[in-house]
Design a protein that fits this description.
By secondary structure, the chain is α/β, with parallel strands linked by helices. It is built from 14 helices and 17 strands. α2 runs antiparallel to α14 and α11 (about 335-350) crosses α12 (about 360-375). About 55% of the residues are buried.
């Protein structure tokens, strides 16, 4: 049994309104076995503090979960900001990158992107994966070669992954066929999608396979239930892009006479194992449908603002009964602290009032909320029996110096993460990834697919 002792200067423990000083955390075989706050330098639980305990100066948090990622979008950072436009014009640049990827170049890009996430304190990623086939839509010899590349990339970066294999069959709500770069996304119909997904079985326990419906634009109405039923029978998470753009709502009403949320509800897609991504433009009735069904909502504020999508009604969705999770989506920014803060700050912009979410609310969305949305119910807490994911944030940087530990969640950035432990194994030490030269690999991987 591999055991390690960690001595956190401060640790944010479950059901605590603020961090606890001087906490001994013992781990063995990837699990937390002891959490013992110290009193006067002595463990309250009668555990002897050994001299070999690894000290974690700063604030130690549970591992963060990035519940919505498109790894290849990382190649677009800093390349789409010139001039005007909207989501739809940005999408053209995204498709150009998608067209250039193959399993080898995707492995390199995703490995670097996931390692950047590790540096930011992310211990688990939900990869919303629809780049399935070759550039003209022809399957690779291994129909899941691109899936395998993503799973291997996460392993090499040292984090867990839930591969949300995405059903993407049509280009518009009224069923226009996939064309151009979109042909890579399609499996023909939902049954063939299900057959391909069912054949993919990752061997390593760092990876799980979930399901996704790209959007109501991408799956014909008569096939929505096929995807939802597969996810339900398999007991895996189901994610769906929902009402990211007003144009999606308008098109759905024109074709089906209802909103996308209503359409998904009528076809059995909503529920406690489902996460709606974005939910930026729901009606009041949509908010009620999401909450009453227990459907989670994954907000991606840095992408939603980068693409000028709008502000989703976060507080109203939570009050209706939808648990929150967070994602970096297009990776315009990879910083779960910023995503969490933006949930509160966006509500302030909407209402011109402060104080909608506490630090604990936001920490929950970034940790247990995200892990639960990805099917890892045993992660996201510093608690005995949970996965040994420890993320330590420095309290002595230019951003955090003088900030009380309880306020660090509102002050810190990804650059302040000093140590990351995933399943008991240290992946980041002193702010440096232990196996990946992240800047170099990002530069090289992006150069290979950017077309520059």
């Amino acid at each position: 049994m591999t055991a390690t002792r960690w001595l956190a200067e401060y640790a944010w423990l479950p059901d605590h309104a603020e961090p606890t000083p001087d906490v001994l955390i013992e781990t063995a075989d990837g699990r937390i076995t002891t959490v013992a706050p110290l009193t006067g330098g002595r463990p309250t639980a009668g555990v002897e503090v050994l001299g070999d305990a690894v000290r974690l100066p700063g604030l130690t948090l549970p591992g963060l979960a990035n519940a919505h990622s498109h790894a290849f979008h990382r190649a677009l950072r800093g390349r789409t900001h010139a001039g005007r436009g909207d989501f739809w014009t940005w999408r053209d640049g995204m498709y150009a990158v998608a067209q250039r990827l193959d399993p080898d170049s995707y492995l390199a890009l995703a490995r670097a992107a996931y390692a950047e996430m590790a540096l930011a304190g992310v211990t688990c990623v939900g990869e919303f994966h629809y780049l399935h086939h070759g550039p003209n839509g022809t399957p690779y010899d291994d129909p899941n070669a691109m899936s395998a590349a993503l799973v291997e990339a996460a392993a090499q970066a040292g984090i867990r992954i839930t591969l949300l294999d995405t059903c993407y069959l049509t280009a518009t709500v009224d069923g226009a066929p996939l064309a151009g770069p979109q042909r890579r996304f399609g499996d023909g119909d939902a049954l063939r999608w299900a057959e391909r997904v069912g054949a993919f079985r990752p061997e390593n326990d760092h990876a799980r396979v979930g399901a996704a419906i790209h959007s109501v634009r991408a799956v014909p109405v008569e096939q929505l239930a096929t995807v939802a039923n597969l996810a339900d029978r398999a007991g895996v998470p189901l994610h769906v892009h929902l009402s990211e753009q007003p144009a999606e709502n308008d098109a759905c009403r024109a074709v089906h006479g209802c909103t996308p949320t209503r359409l998904l509800a009528d076809h059995g897609v909503l529920g406690r194992h489902t996460t709606a991504v974005h939910a930026t433009h729901p009606t009041s009735a949509d908010v009620a449908l999401l909450g009453e069904s227990g459907t989670g909502v994954c907000l991606c504020p840095t992408t939603e603002r980068d693409l000028a999508d709008g502000l989703g009604p976060a507080r109203r969705m939570v009050e209706a009964g939808s648990p929150l999770s967070l994602g970096s989506d297009s990776h315009a920014v990879v910083d779960l602290f910023e995503e969490a803060r933006a949930v509160e700050l966006d509500e302030r912009l909407r209402t011109r009032r402060r104080g909608h979410f506490t630090a604990v609310d936001l920490l929950t969305a970034a940790t247990t909320g995200g892990h639960a949305a990805l099917g890892w119910a045993d992660a996201g807490r510093l608690a005995v029996g949970d996965r040994a994911d420890l993320v330590t944030v420095r309290l002595d940087t230019a951003r955090t110096a003088g900030v009380p530990p309880v306020g660090a969640f509102f002050a810190a950035t990804a650059a302040d993460v000093s140590s990351v432990v995933v399943d008991g194994r240290q992946v980041v030490r002193d702010g440096v990834h232990l196996t990946v030269d992240v800047p170099t690999e990002l530069r090289d991987a992006i150069a290979a697919v950017s077309g520059a």
